[in-house]
Amino acid sequence: MKTYLVTGGAGFIGSNFVHYMLKKYNDIKIINIDKLTYAGNLENLKEIEKNPNYSFVQGDICDKETIEKIFEENEIDYLVNFAAESHVDRSIREPEVFAKTNVLGTVTLLNAAKKYWETEDGFKAGKKYLQVSTDEVYGSLGETGYFMETTPLDSHSPYSSSKAGADLMVKAYFDTFKMPVNITRCSNNYGPYQFPEKLIPLIINNCLAKKDLPVYGDGLNIRDWLYVEDHCKAIDMVINDGRLGEVYNVGGHNERTNIYIVKTIIEYVGNNIDSAVTENLIKYVEDRKGHDRRYGIDPTKIKEELGWEPETTFEVGIKKTIQWYLDNKEWMNNITSGQYQNYYEKMYGRN
Ligand code: NAD
Ligand code: DAU
């Protein structure tokens, strides 16, 4: 029975990963450590909280003692690091916590794994540290071309720079100590349980509340969207079969402009839920500082080496996602009535 230490498992992708893995395997154990910041939500995991193969520890990945205690008490086989401050807009306003969690937290985890996995002649067999990174470390594309694993790092925001710093530390542990690691760099995820500060759940939530739909700049920035379950599948494949020390890009060639995303959501909600939701709600607002223009992933390596391919097209995934938020209004209400509302007002000074 393999034991996974998952960090940040109460967040968006982490909780989807925990669900995905426990559904797929009944012979694994998952320990989820999460600090439960504003973005961590145990409601995301309530369906599996009594699963005997799952346990939760509230803790900070920067806290060496807590992390080492988990390694002391459990034979950890895989460490999958999702825990991070993940929102670009917040990083522009409060960069310090991004440096702390994303860089120092990663180093704390690497050190603990090294301490418990290293032997006199290398590392114990079958161990792996997987860093969940992002395509944002590559910077921004022009109208053509794609990010490849060999594209030089050229991050711009405090968020992406902290993730790039973390990636370089992971690489350093491979290059220096031959620690068994992989890094995955994924494009924008969407799906259930995403905190409604990110574009897709924010627009869905505002449509339902008939609030303004804020579009930054000209709305023509492009993101490459991936349904979260396809990302989880890729991570599982990289843990099992990724070549040690390698980086794998994860993306499904689903580039869309932001305004296309907003109009797609308006159309779905307007046609199916509330005909008062129309494009009149769109409000062009001041652009994000240093706003990356375009992201686009070349997923050839993970496809050719590991056989990974996304299963959910954007057209299917976006409908499933909107419907999930419609079916889980209580989940959204619980978030928006609490810290999120205060956060949003503080950040944007508008409702
Ligand atoms: P999220 O903000 O939804 O979740 C982050 C989780 O980490 C939360 O549960 C939070 O409580 C926890 N956390 C934060 N600081 C912590 C700390 N110091 N110690 C322990 N736990 C802490 O983020 P997400 O969107 O699920 O992203 C997960 C990972 O995937 C991040 O590393 C992010 O950089 C990366 N990523 C995200 C996307 C995306 O589109 N969301 C795309 C590519 C990569
Ligand atoms: O590319 C992967 C990254 O995707 C991850 O590493 C990050 O953790 C994740 O947050 C996401 O970053 P983005 O900045 O691309 O996501 P966000 O949802 O914040 O914004 C998507 C696009 O929509 C971006 O161009 C900014 C724009 N936007 C966003 C918000 C919140 C708007 O126009 N209006 C908004 O209100």
Give an overview of the whole structure:
There is one protein chain. With 351 residues, the chain is α/β, with parallel strands linked by helices. It has twelve helices and 14 strands. It has a single domain, classed as NAD(P)-binding Rossmann-like Domain (Rossmann fold), CATH 3.40.50. 43% of the residues lie in helices and 18% in strands. The strands form four sheets. It has a seven-stranded parallel beta sheet, sandwiched between helices. Strands 9-11-13 form a three-stranded mixed beta sheet. Strand 7, helix 5 and strand 8 form a beta-alpha-beta unit. Helix 2 packs parallel to helix 4. The longest helix is centred in the N-terminal third of the chain and has 23 residues. Bound molecules: nicotinamide-adenine-dinucleotide and 2'deoxy-thymidine-5'-diphospho-alpha-D-glucose (DAU). 2'deoxy-thymidine-5'-diphospho-alpha-D-glucose binds next to helix 6 and strand 10. It catalyses: dTDP-alpha-D-glucose = dTDP-4-dehydro-6-deoxy-alpha-D-glucose + H2O. Belongs to the NAD(P)-dependent epimerase/dehydratase family. dTDP-glucose dehydratase subfamily. Its EC number is 4.2.1.46. It comes from Clostridium acidisoli DSM 12555.
